[in-house]
Predict the structure of rRNA methyltransferase 2, mitochondrial.
Amino acid sequence: LYRSRSAFKLLELDQKYGGFLSKPDVRAVVDLGAAPGGWSQVVAGKMGFDALDEDTTELAKEESSIPGRTKEKTIIAVDLLRMTPIPGVQILQGDMLSLRTAAQIKNFLSRPGNPEGKADVILSDMAANMTGNKIADSESSLDICNAVFAFTKDHLRTEKTVARRKAGVLVLKHFAHPLMTGFRKEYLDPHFTNVAYVKPDSSRAQSSEGYWVCMGWKGLHQGES
Ligand code: SAM
């Protein structure tokens, strides 16, 4: 059983975009705004975490010696709210709008199997509490998108270093609004090989929420910061 209905949205996105969560070279996934944990449950399942419990076990040692198998898989779930544990998932309670949280995630990402401390997939299903005021609500959605992009710039592994087209994936929830179109044009389109707007079938029709599925992170261009 999944903890949230949102789990089905992620399953749908993963299926529609080539199973980006279960590629064998995916070592680290960061799930932002993860509570109660449906998306993290999906990720843990796709990454076969039960088979690679601890790298101190004989099984994990054997697995990591097989070429193409990664030594460790890392899943980090972040939320303002407390979360009940999920096998294979490291939980961090914190505010993504604070720089401190990004620094804490970086510490979790840097492990022996992942010395560069990068994530292969960054997911954000974060949403601020809606006030009903359209301007205030779209501004808080934009704040969240800006914070996620700032994190992505520093922590998403680039397509080039993975040598697989469309590697380096960002899934970003947002609320449709002209401000958001500007955000996409300025930050997403120039830096990813492919950006798609998706409204999953499992998302309520009357809600203005949608997702950008951005694949193939190119990194920043020279001179950009
Ligand atoms: N994907 C989740 C699942 O499958 O269970 C559901 C996520 S829910 C729609 C959005 C979450 O974003 C809430 O739990 C909320 O606490 C979190 N959130 C909103 N703003 C946040 C922030 N600034 N930092 C961290 N989490 C935040």
Observations:
- The longest strand covers residues 209-217.
